[in-house]
Task: inverse folding
C-alpha cells in the first residue's frame, strides 16, 4: 500500500460504483417482475372485458366492426369471414398512442381456426398460434415475443390477449435509466465528498507526522498533539519510543562522561611514572605497571556496566546450584587471597538452588567476593554463607576489613563512589555493577557494617524455591 489516501479513494469509489450497479440491477429486476405481474393482471382484465363483446349470436357485422376498431395505420385487423378489404371500407384507421402497436388479440373457434386476429397477429398465410390451455404463456410470432393470456368463451371458442415483450423491456429500461441517471449525475459530487472526508479524516495523521518531522535529534519531548482515539495507541508507542531513545542517549552520554572521568587520572599518573622512569627513578616502572593494571580493571568494569545498561531485556533464567557456583568462584579468587595471607571460608549449608542467569550471577558474586578480598587487610578473613529462609534463598559475604562509614553506606553503590580507605586500588564501579545485576536478577542487596568489624553484603532472592 503506497498511500492510505489513494487506497481509500480508489476503494470507496469502487465500492460506490459496485453498490450503484447492484442497486440499478436490483431495481431493474424488481421493476420488471412487478410490471410483469401488473401487465398480466391487465391482460386478464382486458380479456374478460373483450369476452363480453361476443357470443354465439354475434353477427358478421359485429365482427367486422370490431376488426375496424382494432385496425391501426399500416396494420389492419382481420376478420376471416369478411369479403373485400378493410382498407376500402375504413380508409385510414386511427391510432391514439404509439404503444397501441404493442397490444393485440385474437378469437378462435372450437376447431382452433382463427375467427378474428388483431394487428400484427396475422399474415398472408398464417395466423397467431391458437391457445390450448387457460392462463399465461410466452409465444413467439413473426420475429417477436409476446406475453399472452388465453381463456375459453361461449360456444367453445377461445380468446387470447397479448402484449409484446419489447414493451415491457422498454419500460424496464426506462425505469432503470431513471434510477441510474440521478445516481450518475450525483457521482461526481459523491466522489468529491468522499475525497474531502478522507482528507479531513487523515488530517490527524498529517499533524502527527509533522510533529515528528519537524523535530531534531535533540528534541525528545513527548508528543502532545491531540489525536483521535484510533491514533492514541500510536502516539503512546511513539512517546514510549522517544522515552527509551532518551534513556539510551542519556546512558551513552553518561558512559562517555564516566569513561573520560575515570580514565583521565590513571592515564595522567602513568605518563608521570613513565617520564620518571625515563630519568632513572627507581620503582617508576613498577608504579606504571600498577597503573596499567588499574586502568585495565577500570576499562573492563566500564565495558561490563555499559553492556548491562544497554541490554535492558531480562536474560534467560536457569536453575543453578548456589554452593557449586560459590565454590567455583572461590577457586578462581583463591590465588588473590593466598597472596595476601587471607582466609577465604565457605560456610557449610544445605543444598540451595536458585533461579537466574548463570553468567550474571557469576559476575555479581565474583565482584562482591573480589571487593571483600581487596578491602580486607592482609591476614584477614572473608566468609561466604548461604541458606534458605521462608523458602527464599539468601547469600552473605562478610569480611574483616575497615567497613564503611554509616553516612556512606547508601552512596557507595553509586558510580565512582568509594569507601573512605583510598589506599585500596579501585574504580568505585564494583558495587554499582553488583546493584545493576541484582536488579536485573530480581535480588535484594543489603550492605551493613558488622559489630565485630568489617562489612557484610547480603543477597536475598525474591522468587521462592520450588
Result:
Amino acid at each position: 500500500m503506497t498511500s492510505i489516501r489513494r487506497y481509500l479513494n480508489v476503494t470507496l469509489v469502487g465500492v460506490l460504483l459496485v453498490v450503484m450497479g447492484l442497486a440499478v440491477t436490483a431495481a431493474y429486476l424488481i421493476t420488471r417482475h412487478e410490471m410483469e405481474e401488473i401487465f398480466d393482471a391487465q391482460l386478464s382484465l382486458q380479456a374478460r372485458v373483450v369476452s363480453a363483446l361476443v357470443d354465439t349470436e354475434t353477427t358478421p357485422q359485429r365482427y367486422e366492426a370490431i376488426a375496424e376498431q382494432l385496425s391501426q395505420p399500416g396494420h389492419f385487423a382481420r376478420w376471416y369471414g369478411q369479403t373485400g378489404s378493410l382498407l376500402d371500407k375504413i380508409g385510414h384507421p386511427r391510432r391514439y398512442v404509439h404503444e397501441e402497436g404493442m397490444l393485440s388479440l385474437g378469437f378462435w373457434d372450437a376447431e382452433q381456426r382463427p375467427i378474428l386476429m388483431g394487428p400484427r397477429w396475422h399474415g398472408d398465410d398464417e395466423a397467431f398460434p391458437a391457445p390450448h390451455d387457460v392462463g399465461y404463456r410466452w409465444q413467439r410470432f413473426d420475429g417477436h415475443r409476446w406475453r399472452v393470456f388465453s381463456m375459453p368463451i361461449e360456444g367453445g371458442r377461445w380468446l387470447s390477449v397479448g402484449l409484446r415483450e419489447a414493451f415491457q423491456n422498454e419500460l424496464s429500461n426506462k425505469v432503470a435509466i431513471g434510477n441510474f441517471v440521478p445516481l450518475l449525475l450525483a457521482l461526481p459530487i459523491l466522489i468529491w465528498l468522499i475525497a474531502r472526508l478522507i482528507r479531513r479524516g487523515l488530517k490527524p495523521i498529517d499533524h502527527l507526522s509533522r510533529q515528528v518531522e519537524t523535530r531534531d535529534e535533540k528534541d525528545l519531548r513527548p508528543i502532545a498533539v491531540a489525536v483521535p482515539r484510533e491514533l492514541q495507541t500510536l502516539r503512546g508507542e511513539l512517546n514510549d519510543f522517544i522515552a527509551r531513545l532518551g534513556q539510551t542517549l542519556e546512558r551513552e552520554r553518561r558512559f562517555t562522561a564516566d569513561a573520560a572521568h575515570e580514565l583521565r587520572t590513571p592515564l595522567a599518573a602513568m605518563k608521570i611514572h613513565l617520564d620518571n622512569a625515563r630519568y632513572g627513578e627507581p620503582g617508576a616502572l613498577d608504579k606504571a605497571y600498577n597503573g596499567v593494571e588499574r586502568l585495565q580493571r577500570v576499562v573492563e568494569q566500564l565495558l561490563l556496566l555499559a553492556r548491562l545498561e544497554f541490554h535492558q531485556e531480562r536474560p534467560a533464567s536457569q536453575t543453578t546450584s548456589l554452593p557449586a557456583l560459590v565454590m567455583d568462584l572461590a577457586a578462581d579468587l583463591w590465588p588473590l587471597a593466598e597472596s595476601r595471607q587471607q582466609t577465604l571460608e565457605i560456610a557449610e549449608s544445605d543444598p540451595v538452588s536458585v533461579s537466574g542467569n548463570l553468567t550474571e550471577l557469576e559476575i555479581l558474586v565474583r565482584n562482591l567476593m573480589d571487593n571483600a578480598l581487596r578491602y580486607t587487610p592482609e591476614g584477614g578473613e572473608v566468609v561466604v554463607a548461604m541458606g534458605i529462609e521462608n523458602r527464599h534463598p539468601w547469600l552473605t559475604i562478610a569480611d574483616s576489613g575497615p567497613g564503611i562509614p554509616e553516612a556512606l553506606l547508601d552512596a557507595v553503590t553509586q558510580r565512582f563512589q568509594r569507601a573512605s580507605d583510598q589506599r585500596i586500588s579501585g574504580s568505585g564501579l564494583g558495587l554499582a555493577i553488583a546493584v545493576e545485576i541484582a536488579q536485573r536478577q530480581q535480588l535484594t542487596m543489603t550492605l551493613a557494617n558488622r559489630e565485630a568489624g568489617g562489612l557484610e553484603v547480603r543477597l536475598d532472592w525474591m522468587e521462592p524455591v520450588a
